[in-house]
Structure formats: structure tokens, C-alpha cells
Specification:
binds flavin-adenine dinucleotide, seven-stranded mixed beta sheet
């Protein structure tokens, strides 16, 4: 990884400076002043902060000082032989830590207030991934280890052990005390805002976890201050994948184009395609079968088609966030977003994720009941949603058959036969509202 990054930097002749810890960012006038630990100062109109989430969150529990931080605790199972271990947290870090200790510890409990959520059901990769879930067998099949849904009231020393008082979430508020030898804290991470001085202190969001950001990942109160990497997750916290390289790589690419637009006047890249139903349908079908951004950032990133009255071509934009489109294109009379989405509401409502009913593959009238990932085209006018069209799901996630293409072509034929003449735009709107 290090060699790859080195090669990448030298190939692209990146202007990098290592051994530079930023200790202060200020904005005394219209420029930022960034100061490193050696006292070097850098001046800039724009600053992008991509410092990750380096601090472990320590919840305000009486006696939490007895817990060891996940980032510092020994990872040698031999140090836990025969011990009773409590892990605070039920995320991937907690499960990964637990899995490492299963052969050594006499008992492992994972405790937090909220029930476990599986990534395979929620489609959020911050929930528990199958690769880390071996402990569940040792709980539900073997009864050695356990998950505890409870509020930890306090932790106290008791005869060389640690006594934890729980208020159970699912047992009529039963209170119980359990003894452990070790407690490991895996309760998530926070960003570091200590580098900002009073001249440019960004507002924060989600319990101080992230900087508060606009749909352009710019600070809501400090113009010119942007955020990249996992810090972008403020905009889709616990819903989509911007907390992970998996997702934020697409946001970073989009941020780059936004900065070019705002600071260098380079228009957002788009293709022009003929304003005909055939060309538009073809463009959508081609894209949904190859896009990576819409596939990884389901419902968060979209393609955008903007049609202008009386013009023979429409504009086709790729890989923008839905938030950004709603903030910046809402004045347009005729535009479409194209996303790939799961039928998440129906999946959430199903008692068993492996028994979710789905429509017959040829029953396009039930396309909106699709639960697997599938394209959704939304038609807007002035920020108002007029239509939602689902392209029926496909077992192989390839939407090229007539059941996928024809209904979309019919929709576009309706829209463009009456919608694109100067006099026809408002009648299209009226027709759409009526339907
Ligand atoms: C166990 C684990 C497994 C994961 N697995 C996956 C996975 O499979 N797929 C996936 O997509 N994601 C995964 N992630 C998440 C992914 O690693 C992070 O989302 C990603 O590394 C965040 O990148 P970033 O650049 O935003 O922050 P970081 O990688 O944290 O980089 C921040 C950088 O900023 C530097 N920095 C901080 N403060 C300062 C300062 N004041 N001055 C100068 N430099 C500073 C740091 O030294 C660091 O180099 C995993 C995370 C963990 C913990």
C-alpha cells in the first residue's frame, strides 16, 4: 500500500509534504492560514480537510476509565486466556476484536443500547459484515458468548474484577450486575477539531461527530473550508457508504469537479444527447448497466438529465449526489434523476431477509415492488417530484431486456412527445400531475 501510494505520487508529480502535522488553521481575512508543527505557514483561499476520525469515542459512563481502548489494547489472545471480557460496542471493530479472542477468553459479551444490525439486511457496510460475524454462532448455538442490549449504568471495581450494572432494553427494565476481568471500548470514532482557531471554527453535527456540511461538503459556516474522505459521511450518516473508501471515492471525484466549477469557472461536465425518447432511453439503459458510483452509493448518487424547452438536445450529467442536484437544479422545469436503489423499506419490513417476496420478472406493473437493486428514474419540475419510474429488478442486475427497456421508452415517449415544445412544457406538467 505504501509503495503504491509512493508510486502514485511520483507518477503524477504530486506536490506533497510529509512530516507536516497541521497544528492550527485560522482565517484572519479572506485567506486561510495553515500552520504546521515546524511553524511553516501556508496561505490559501480554499482548504480541504481530510484528517479522518482519529479519536475513539468515550461514552459518559461512570467508571468508563476502567475500560481499555480498542486502539491500544493487546491483540494477542494469550493475554486473555480464561478471562471474562466485556466489549462495549456492536460494530465491526467490536466483532473483529471479539472474534480474535473467542479461542482464548472464557466468556465474551458485546454490549450497547441498540440491537445488532446486519449489513446484509440494511445494505449499510458500517453495520455488521458477514466476514466478522463468527461470534454469533458461539452465542446462539453454543451459549458461550452473548450480545447484550442494555444501557450500562456504571462500572465499579469489585474484588479484583469489574462489576458492570446493566439496565436491559428488552426485559422490563431489569437491572443486572455482571463481573468481568477486562472491558474493551469499541464505541466508534470522532473527528479532531482542535486545529481550528476562533477565526474559523466549523459548526459540528451528529453529536459533535462530524463537521456540519452543505451538499458540496463545504462547512456550513466557514466558506472555502471543505471536507473529504470519511468526514463526508455527515451527509449520509449510517445510511449510505460515504464513511468508507468504498463510497467516498465517488464523492471525492465529484468534489474535485465542484471546486473546478466554483474556483476555476469550468462548467460541470455533461454530454449532450438528442432530446428524443429513443436516445434518452438508450443513454439511461447504457449507464445503469455499467455505472459503479450509482451501484455503490445507492440512492445517494445519481445521473441527471436536464431538458430545456425548445432545445433539440438534453444535458446528461454523471455521478452527482441527489442532495446537490436538489440544491442546484431545482429551478429547472424539466429534469430527471437516475439512481440505483434497493426496495429497502420492504426489506426492512420483512421478518427474514432471506424470504423477501419479489415481483414476477415480467410483471412490469409491479416494478415498484422490486426489492433487489434496480434503476429508478424520477421526473422533477422546479424541485417538485412529478413521477417515479422503477425499472423492474433483474436477478443478474442487467437491465437490457424488453421488460426493462420498453416501459422506460414509453415513459420517455410520453414526456417528450408533448413536453419539449415551448407551448407544451406546461401541458406535460399538467398531464404528469393528473396521472
Ligand atoms: C478495521 C477497519 C477496516 C476497514 N475496512 C474497510 C474496507 O474494507 N473498505 C472500505 O472502504 N473502508 C474500510 N474502512 C474504512 C476506511 O479505512 C476509512 O474510511 C478510510 O481510511 C478513511 O480515509 P480518510 O482519508 O478519510 O482518513 P484516514 O485514512 O484516517 O487518513 C487521515 C490522514 O490525515 C492525517 N492527519 C490527521 N490529522 C492531521 C493533522 N492535524 N495534520 C496533518 N495530517 C493529519 C493522518 O495522519 C492520516 O494520514 C475500514 C476501517 C477500519 C478501522
Amino acid at each position: 500500500m505504501v509503495k503504491y501510494l509512493g508510486d502514485f505520487a511520483s507518477l503524477l508529480k504530486l506536490n506533497l509534504r510529509c512530516d507536516s502535522r497541521v497544528v492550527r488553521i485560522s482565517k484572519p481575512d479572506d485567506r486561510f492560514v495553515v500552520t504546521d508543527q515546524h511553524g511553516n505557514q501556508f496561505f490559501s483561499r480554499v482548504v480541504i480537510v481530510a484528517t479522518g476520525v482519529p479519536y475513539q469515542y468515550v461514552p459518559p459512563i461512570s467508571g468508563i476509565n476502567y475500560a481499555e481502548l480498542y486502539s491500544r489494547v493487546s491483540i494477542d489472545p494469550k493475554d486473555f486466556v480464561g478471562q471474562r471480557v466485556l466489549i462495549i460496542g456492536k460494530g465491526n471493530s467490536a466483532f473483529e476484536t471479539a472474534e480474535n479472542l473467542i479461542p482464548a477468553a472464557s466468556l465474551i459479551h458485546l454490549a450497547s443500547r441498540h440491537p445488532l444490525q446486519m449489513a446484509w439486511k440494511s445494505h449499510y457496510v458500517g453495520h455488521l459484515r458477514a466476514v466478522n460475524n463468527e461470534l454469533l454462532d458461539t452465542y446462539l448455538l453454543k451459549g458461550q458468548n452473548a450480545l447484550v442490549d442494555a444501557k450500562i449504568e456504571r462500572i465499579q471495581r469489585a474484588n479484583g474484577q469489574l462489576c458492570v450494572s446493566y439496565g436491559y432494553a428488552h426485559a422490563d427494565a431489569e437491572i443486572e450486575e455482571i463481573l468481568y476481568d477486562r472491558i474493551i471500548l469499541c464505541a466508534g470514532f470522532r473527528w479532531d477539531h482542535s486545529i481550528f482557531d476562533d477565526t474559523c471554527r466549523p459548526l459540528t453535527a451528529i453529536d459533535d461527530r462530524y463537521p456540519a456540511q452543505t451538499s458540496e461538503w463545504e462547512s456550513v459556516n466557514i466558506p472555502g473550508l471543505y471536507f473529504a474522505g470519511t468526514l463526508m459521511h455527515m451527509r449520509d450518516f449510517k445510511k449510505k457508504q460515504s464513511g468508507f473508501i468504498h463510497g467516498f471515492r465517488y464523492n471525492v471525484k465529484m468534489l474535485h469537479t465542484l471546486l473546478e466549477l466554483k474556483y476555476e469557472g469550468r462548467p460541470l461536465f455533461h454530454r449532450s444527447i438528442p432530446a428524443t425518447p429513443e436516445a434518452i432511453t438508450d443513454a439511461i439503459i447504457k449507464r445503469v448497466n455499467v455505472t459503479s458510483a450509482l451501484w455503490q452509493q445507492t440512492g445517494y448518487m445519481c445521473d441527471l438529465i436536464v431538458a430545456h424547452r425548445g432545445q433539440a438536445e438534453v444535458e446528461y450529467y454523471e455521478d452527482l449526489t441527489v442532495d446537490y442536484v436538489q440544491d442546484n437544479f431545482a429551478k429547472e422545469e424539466h429534469y430527471y434523476t437516475i439512481t440505483l436503489e434497493f426496495g429497502q423499506e420492504r426489506i426492512d419490513a420483512a421478518p427474514d431477509v432471506f424470504q423477501v417476496s419479489r415481483p414476477h420478472k415480467n410483471d412490469v406493473s409491479q416494478a415498484h415492488m422490486s426489492t433487489g437493486i434496480h434503476p429508478i428514474v424520477r421526473r422533477y419540475d422546479g424541485g417538485r417530484l412529478l413521477r417515479v419510474h422503477h425499472v423492474i429488478e433483474d436477478f443478474a442486475s442487467e437491465w437490457r431486456e424488453q421488460v426493462h427497456v420498453r416501459p422506460l421508452a414509453e415513459l420517455m415517449a410520453g414526456e417528450f412527445s408533448m413536453g419539449m415544445s415551448p407551448s407544451g412544457a406546461s401541458s406535460a406538467r399538467k398531464a404528469a400531475l393528473v396521472s
